[in-house]
Structures are given as C-alpha cells and as structure tokens.
C-alpha cells in the first residue's frame, strides 16, 4: 500500500496517510476539503544481496574491466585476488606515494 499526501484547502495543512487506493478514494469523498498532492513515487527495486544478485556475466565483465585497469578502485573490488596481484598493487601504491611526495 502506498503513502498518499493530502493538503487541507482551508488550513493549508499538509499530511500523509498510508492506505489503499480504494480507501483513498473513499477518504477523499468523505472529506471534500482535502485535495491530493502529486508527488514522485518512492520505488524500491530490491535489496542488494537479498533479492538482487549479480549474474555471472556481469561479474565476469567487471573482472575483465578490472584486469584492464589494474590501478583503479574497481580492480580492488573485482580484480584478481591472488597474493601476487595484491602485493603488486601494494607496491604500485607505495611507488605512487613516493613519487607524489617528491
């Protein structure tokens, strides 16, 4: 059930109410001094990890992008997780830090 926002024409009071569409129609008929306000819908498409999971094709593409850009933040999330690649990334970070400090 959605939340609807109403405005009282007489007092300019704005309030919201949680009800079904049928109840909203009946509520507006019973209270002619109220008018519905148009708002953007609040849509929730899912919760990551619970109702939405990335398929293997997406994960594979992210791994390819991470391999092509080994120094990017994306590579830290989706890149190669081996010890060698981790140590290589750490060595690159140290070298960048040294170069920037000069």
Q: Summary?
A:
This protein has two domains: 3-36, no CATH class; 56-101, no CATH class.
What do you see in this structure?
The chain folds into two domains: 3-36, no CATH class; 56-101, no CATH class. The chain is built from four helices and three strands. The model has no long low-confidence stretch (mean pLDDT 86). It has a three-stranded antiparallel sheet with strand order 2-1-3, with no helix packed on it. It is α+β, with helices and mostly antiparallel strands. The radius of gyration is 27 Å and the shape is elongated. Helix content is 47%, strand content 14%.
How many helices? The count is: 4
Radius of gyration, CA atoms, in whole angstroms? 27 Å
Any idea what the shape is?
elongated
Give the distance, in angstroms, between the N- and C-terminal Cα atoms.
Answer: 61 Å
Note the beta-strand portion.
5-15%
Output the strand order for the largest sheet: 2-1-3
Task: List the secondary-structure elements in sequence, H or E.
Answer: EEHEHHH
How many strand units? 3
Number of domains: 2
Largest sheet: 3 strands, antiparallel
Residue runs with pLDDT of under 50 for 5 or more positions? none
Structural class: alpha+beta
Mean pLDDT: 86
Q: What portion of residues is helical?
A: 40-55%
């Amino acid at each position: 059930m959605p939340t609807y926002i109403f405005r009282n024409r007489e007092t300019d009071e704005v309030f919201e109410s949680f009800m079904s569409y049928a109840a909203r129609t009946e509520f507006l008929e019973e209270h002619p001094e109220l008018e519905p306000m148009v708002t953007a819908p609040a849509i929730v498409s899912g919760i990551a990890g619970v109702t939405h999971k990335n398929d293997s094709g997406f994960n594979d593409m992210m791994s390819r992008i991470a391999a092509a850009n080994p120094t990017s933040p994306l590579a830290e999330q989706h890149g190669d997780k081996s010890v060698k690649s981790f140590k290589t990334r750490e060595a690159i970070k140290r070298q960048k830090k040294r170069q920037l400090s000069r």
